[in-house]
Amino acid sequence: MSAHCPTLSDMGRGFDDRDGDDHDHRLPSTADAPSVTMADAQPIADAPSTTSATAGTPLTADAAKRGRHLLGTAGYAVTQTVLLSLLFMVYRFGRHVVDDHQTEALSHGVTVWNMERRLHLPDEAAVQHLALHSHYMTILINEFYFAVHFPAAIALLVWVFVRHRSAWPRVRNVIIIATGMALMIHILYPLAPPRLLPRVMTNLIDTGAIFGPSPYAQGDGFANEYAAMPSLHIGWAIIEAWVVIIALCSRWRCLAIVQPVATTAVVVATANHYWVDGAVGGLLVLLAIQVTRPALQARIVAMVRPAVTRQSDACEPG
After folding, report:
1. CA 289, chain centre distance (Å)
2. Residue 218 lies in a domain
3. In CA terms, which of 58, 77, 134, 258 is 20 to 30 Å from 87?
4. Quick check: helix, strand or coil at residue 216?
5. How far, in Å, CA of 234 to CA of 282, rounded?
6. What is the spatial distance between Cα 287 and Cα 173, in angstroms, rounded to a whole number?
7. How many Cβ atoms are within 10 Å of 16's Cβ, its own excluded?
8. Does 59 reside within a domain?
9. For 191, phi and psi rounded to 5 degrees?
10. Residue 242's closest CA among 184, 276, 293?
């Protein structure tokens, strides 16, 4: 007997599963069946042929069913794409709410930097200096920071939607909740990344600006440089690892943890984030995962449903 491996289908399973044991599946007794005699039997040749009348019916019904299924899936995919696109637009707009708070963001950056030193966290400059030993390594980490974040997230969403549809609502909700909480922190606590702090204090350089590529060099207003807390590069990488580990049963699935580990090293080595940014991003993801647990949602529904029912009964005319 092989051990059960949890899957995304288990993770996204609904709350009203039924085992179907309410029906009586006993076979009918042959004692009650009418006897058939030779006189009742008719030659096969005398039976009317229905093959030509019904030959195309099953295929036509199956084709119509498949067509409806494809249309339904396409419509659902469009609505989910629109929903996530709206989330991205709101997130992008919200980050730019703090565009004019550079002085405050820089002050917060100094505070975070000094707090990390008091907590004796590893020096971000030490990680960067390791990467700077190789010109190619420096270009590689800049490319990773610039090009991996969004494509990896989109690939994950497409994979879950296509291969693990039952888990799609929870994965989508985890991303929405974690991103929404991150946006609130961006607005309430604008934070300049360590690469924008005085070099005499941090001993860090802006690797993207010096070696390229940099997402901030184009001046197109796409990214807000003063929203370092928390790091969604790390937060989304943790989500990607969580989904892969839950979805697969392979012994190699734990290698997915390489993604958040590599992302953490990259955002620190490029001086785009502090250690604390990654810690807060990870905590937001863990909170979103806990909030969306099916068991917790079932308890919430069980508590809310009686109140909704009473309210509905009260609104009915006497």
Report:
1. 10
2. yes
3. 258
4. coil
5. 7
6. 12
7. 7
8. no
9. -140, 125
10. 293
pLDDT for residue 46? 45
Burial class of residue 139 in the structure, from the number of CB atoms within 10 Å of its CB (0-12 exposed, 13-18 middle, 19+ buried): middle
Q: Show the tokens assigned to 290.
A: 């806990």
Could you give the CA distance from residue 7 to residue 5 in angstroms, rounded to a whole number? 6
Count of domains observed in the chain = 1
**Tokens 């917790």, located at residue:** 296
Residues 237, 160: Cα–Cα separation, whole Å: 15
User: Under a CB-based contact definition with an 8 Å cutoff, are residues 98 and 224 in contact?
Assistant: yes
Query: In angstroms, how far is the first alpha carbon of the chain from the final one?
Result: 60
Is the model's pLDDT at 80 over the cut of 60? yes
Instruction: Give the pLDDT score at 203.
Output: 95
Per-residue HEC secondary structure of 92-147 comes to: HHHHHHHCCCHHHHHHHHHHHHHHHHHCCCCCHHHHHHHHHCCHHHHHHHHHHHHH
Please report, as a single letter, which amino acid is at residue 7. Answer: T
Q: 191 has which bridge partners?
A: 227
Residue 10 lies in a domain: no
Give the up-direction half-sphere exposure of residue 302: CA atoms within 13 A in the CB hemisphere.
Answer: 8
Cβ atoms of 236 and 157 within 8 Å: the answer is no
Give the residue, 243 or 16, on which the prediction is more confident.
243
CA 71 to chain centre: 24
- Domain span at residue 208? 76-302
Q: Report d(CA 294, CA 276) in Å as an integer.
A: 30
Cα separations (Å) of 187 from 182, 228, 272?
Answer: 9, 11, 18
- Rounded Cα–Cα distance for residues 127 and 268 (Å): 7
Residue (of 266, 280, 166) closest to 227 by Cα position:
280
Q: Is the alpha carbon torsion for 6, 12, 14, 15 positive or negative?
A: positive
Q: Is 33 among the domain residues?
A: no
Distance CA 36, CA 34 (A): 6
